[in-house]
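Notes to self after the call with IL:
- keep both proteins in one doc
- input above output, always
- annotate only the second one for now

Protein 1:
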Amino acid sequence: MPALTTTVATAASAIAATATGEAGPGTALSPTPTPYAPPFPPLAEPRPLGELRVWPRTFHDRLTAPLPGLKAMARFAREGSVRPGREGLADVRRLPYEPGPLPRADPDTVAVTWAGHASWVVRIGGLTVLTDPVWSRRILGTPARVTPVGVPWETLPRVDAVVLSHNHYDHLDAPTLRRLPRDTPVFVPAGLGRWFRRRRFTTVTELDWWEAAELSGVRFDFVPAHHWSKRTLTDTCHSLWGGWVLTAPDGARVYFAGDTGYGHWFSRIGRRYPGIDLALMPIGAYDPRWWLSDVHLDPEEAVRATQDLAARRMAPMHWGTFILSAEPVLEPLTRVRAAWERAGLAREDLWDLPVGASKMLEWSAP
C-alpha cells in the first residue's frame, strides 16, 4: 500500500475543557493528502494519567436533544419495535463474518480489526488499543449476538489501553473488562472512573470533552457526541459520553465515534483535529427514526458525518452484531455503500469490513 504523508499541527497552548468548539461547513473527502490548517481552538495540554478529579453530579447540560418523555414512551409502547420482522431477520446467515489473523503492530503502522459492534482492536503508534470491548455473547436486555466475536480473546496481544465511549451495556461490558489485568490503562468519560476504580483498575483516566492524555507517545483526545448515558434507574447522565481521537507520534490519526446521532459536533471535531485518516463510524440501530434519530446515525448520516470530519476513510461499525432496532439486518451495509457511492467518494476508502477482518495503513511521517 502506498505510504501516506500529512501535516499535523502540534498543540500551541492549553484550553479549558468546555463543550464549545468552532463550527465549520461540511467538507468533501479529498482523494489525496493535503496540508491542513492548525487546530482551532488549539489542542489542550495532556492531563496526567490516572488523575483523581471531582466532577458534577450530572451532565444533563451536555444533552443536545431532550431524552424521551412519557408521551414518547407511550408511543413507543404502542407502535415501536426493537426487532426486525421475519423478512428482516432472514438475512442473518448472510451477515459478513471473516475472522483472520491480527496484523502486525509497529510504530509506523495503523491497523484496525473489527471484533463486532463498537469493539475494535486498534494498532497505532506501536500500541494495541481496544474500543468499547464487548466479548460477551449476550448483553442485558438484548438477544444474543448474531455473529460470533471476530477476534478470540486468547489471540489478543497484550492490551496497552482501553477507551470507553459511555456506559450503556452494549459498550461497557463488565464480564469482558474483568478479563483485563487491573493495571491496564483505561480512558473513560468524566464521571465514569469510579465504576472502574471500584473494580480495582489502577490507571483510570477520566476526561471531559476536548481534553487529552498521552500514553507512550500516543495522544488520546475525548470529543463530544450526540448521545446520553444511563446504566441503572438512578444514574441518568451521571457520567459523560463521547468519542475518541487517537493520534500517533508521527501524526497518524483515528477517530472512534462511539455512539452518536448526527449534528454539529462532527464539523467542530474535524476543525480541531485536522487530518483524520480513518473514522470508525456507527451505521446501525436507527429504526424507527422518530425514536432513535437523536442518538444513532443512520447510514446516510454516517457518510455525511465523515465528510464533515474531512476524514479520508470510513469504517462502519455498530451493526451486524446485536439486534438493537427494527431495520433489516443487512440494510445498514447496503445503504452505507449506496450513500458512499452517491457522495462520489472513492470505493477503496470505505472500509466495510466483515466481523473479524482487518485493514492496515502504511504510514510515513513527513
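Protein 2 (the one to annotate):
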Amino acid sequence: MSKLNETISRITDLNKEAIKKAQQHLDILTKPQGSLGILEDIVKQLAGITGNPMPKLGEKVVIIMAGDHGVVEEGVSAFPQEVTYQMVLNFLAGGAAINVLSRHAGAKIVCCDIGIAVDVKNPDLIIKKVRHGTNNMTKGPAMSRSEAIRAVEAGIEVAEEQIAKGATILATGDMGIGNTTPSSAILKVFTGCPIEKAVGRGTGLNDNGLARKAMVINRAIEINNPDPEDPIDVLSKVGGLEIAGLTGVILGSAAHKIPVVIDGFISTAAAMIAGKIEPKAINYMIASHVSEEPGHKLMLETLGLSPILHMKMRLGEGTGAALAFHIIDAATHVQSEMATFESAGVTTAPLTID
C-alpha cells in the first residue's frame, strides 16, 4: 500500500462520545449554555479529534512548505521568483511576520523545500524537493501525476516527523511566488465559479495584471482540462508543489488525530484537495481566518468551515493560523479552568417571570 493510501485509510470520523462529554461539561460551567460561541465549538471539535473531553494543547508547530511556479513567466505576480528562496532564508533567520507571530503564540516553525527553483543550503531547512519548481501550466501540466503524489507524501512525512517529536497541533504555512494563481485555478475547477470570483491581486497586481492573471488561469484550465472528480489530477495539472505538500500535512494530521489549523488562500486550496481526497479530513481542519483574497470565502464555504478571525490579512506564511493559536488555546483553558455551577455555588435555574 502506498504512503498516501495508507494515510487515507487511517482517517476516521470524530469521536462522538468525547464530543458528547465535552458538551456536557460546557453546559455546567458558570455561564449561559452556548454563550462562548466559537470557543465552545473549538472545544467540542478538539474533543472529537483527540478523544479527550478536556483537550489540552502542547507543542504547536507551523509547517511552511516552499515551492516555485513556472507560471510566473506569464507575469502573474508583482514580485520576481527569487523572492521565494529569499523569504525562506528570512524565515530561517527569524525575521518574517510568521516568525514574530509564532514566537508570540509559543509556536515552533519548520520550513520545508518541496520545490524551490534553486537549491537553498541551510542546516535548518527540511529538504523534500520533488523538483525545481513546477512547469508553466499554460503550456501543459504543472507536474506529473507521480510528482504530485510524491509531494503529497512528502507533506505527510513532514507532519509525521513533527508529531513524533511531540507536536499536538499543526498549522499550515506557504511560500511560493505566483501561488495564488494555481490556488485560484483549483477553486475554479472544483466550484465552476466565474473567474472574477476566483482570482485576486495576490502580491499587489494592478488592474492590467489582474486581467492578465485571470486570462492565464482560464488558459491553463482550458489546455489541461483537469478532472474535478480526481483531486490528484487537478493538483498535478494546475496546482503547486507547496500546495501538494500542505495537502499531505493536512492528511497526515488527520490520520494521527491531530488538529490542523488552516491558514489563508493557498493553504485552503490544499485543504480543498485534501477534502476531495478524503472528506473525513475536513473534520480535523480549523479555519483560522478569512483572507482578503476574494476566492477564500468561497473556498471556506465549499468546505463548510467557519473562520475564527476576520483580520483583512492576505500575507500567507501561516500568519493567520499563528494568530488563531491564541483563540484555540483560550478555548481549552475555558474547558479546564472555569468553575461549574455546583463548585462555585451558583444557582443554575433561571428565574421564571410571568
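Annotation: The beta strands are 59-67, 107-115, 126-127, 167-175, 260-262, 285-287. The CA atoms of residues 32 and 348 lie 9 Å apart.
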